[in-house]
Amino acid sequence: MIRLGIIGAGNRICNIVQGLQAHDPECRVTGVVDPDESGARARLPAADRTDARFFPTVSSLLRRGRPDALLIGTRCNLHAPYAAAVAQAGLPLFLEKPIATSLRQARALEKAWQNARAEVVVSFPLRVSQLCVEAKRRIDAGAIGRAEHFLGINYVPYGHVYFDRWYRDHRITQGLFLQKATHDFDYLAYLAGAPIVRVAAMKACGRVHRDQSLEPPGGDPDAAYYPSIGTPETGMNEDASSALLEFANGAQGVYTQVFYTRNSAAARGATVSGLRGTLRFDWYANDLRVVPHAPDTQPEVFSPPEGLEHFGGDAKLVANFSDVIRGRAKSATPLRAGLESVYACLAAKRSAETGRFVNVQPVTEV
């Protein structure tokens, strides 16, 4: 049996555990740290609800629960402190994103894991989804020539969750570059084969999600106009935000995310441009297209299976984490990738606040 220890048993991490158990039935949750024991126990997979032990602290979980691997699924502002606290335990870790919500947290996390003996799997399902992997394979094979320009878009059809649920607390999320774009900055850097080194960003706050005059007649269950979402002055999540990106290899990028999109207007994916061709993919449309620039050539179209959780990325994450636990593989989404993403997100946040280009903190210790 593989003994799993959970720190923060929210819906997301419990879904990951269910997927992990489907992939590897020997995995069982034996220890949990969560202040809401009744709620957490109800979210656990049915097979673990009775026998899982709850511990008041991480140290007691490690000492008395003796887990073989750990998963952290707390609220966002606690990911980094808990991950730093278990760095020297020598246990494989599944870490939810964003892996930090401040520069101080990120630096402390990087330092804590500097000489750690274990692997971290960061919750970046887009990077390992089939569409992204197929795009990476074609880019690396030279299908479009050297990739010079990246356009990433995220028109979020469920953006109301960032205003009508706990995500609306800006003290926890620190904005939607950290909460949302951390996925996209990661997969864009993965496709580029280089980290983001400089960012210029802007944001719009309170133009939509505090304007009750925009609510459709008759009410809209997706519309959220609550005083508790904050204000642009006190801090609140963005209605929309965008960034210019410079990669370490000289490529350029543009990214934008919009949180009041609805229905079939949803879009998430990238356009990658090179001298020899253009590659486009969209997770909602579930297709990838490579258009050669040479005359009299036909586009290539690829579509993976549909209906997969996080576009198939979650299944790849749990399979990889299982292999990491059993010593059969390295992490496909390592801590370094999480740090590079969060440093880029923090630079975007700072740039949007100051109106200036901001250099991205480099990863030096992991």
Q: Sketch the major β-sheet.
A: 9 strands, mixed
H/E element string? EHEHEHEHEHEHHEHHHEEEEEEEHHE
Q: What is the CATH superfamily classification of the largest domain?
A: Dihydrodipicolinate Reductase, domain 2
CATH architecture call of the largest domain: 2-Layer Sandwich
General form? globular
- The poorly predicted ranges are none
- CATH classification, class level of the largest domain: Alpha Beta
- What count of structural domains? 2
Helix content: 25-40%
Strand order of the largest sheet: 14-13-12-11-7-10-9-8-15
For the residues shown, what is the average pLDDT? 94
Number of helices: 12
Task: Kindly report how far apart the N and C termini lie.
Answer: 31 Å
Features:
15 strands; 2 domains; Dihydrodipicolinate Reductase, domain 2; six-stranded parallel beta sheet; alpha/beta; globular; Rossmann fold; nine-stranded mixed beta sheet; 366 residues
Characterization of the model:
- This protein has helices at residues 11-23, 37-43, 58-65, 79-85, 103-112, 125-128, 130-140, 161-164, 170-173, 176-192, 313-325, 335-354, and strands spanning 2-7, 27-33, 53-54, 69-72, 93-95, 120-122, 149-155, 196-204, 240-247, 252-258, 267-273, 277-282, 287-292, 300-302, 358-359.
- With 366 residues, it is of the alpha/beta class.
- The chain folds into two domains: 2-125, Rossmann fold (3-Layer(aba) Sandwich), CATH 3.40.50; 130-306 and 335-359, Dihydrodipicolinate Reductase, domain 2, CATH 3.30.360.10.
- A nine-stranded mixed β-sheet has the order 14-13-12-11-7-10-9-8-15, with helices on one face. Strands 3-2-1-4-5-6 form a six-stranded parallel β-sheet, sandwiched between helices.
- Helix 2 (37-43) links the parallel strand 2 (27-33) and strand 3 (53-54).
- The longest helix is centred in the last third of the chain and has 20 residues, at 335-354.
- It is globular.
- It starts with a strand and ends in a 7-residue tail after the last strand.
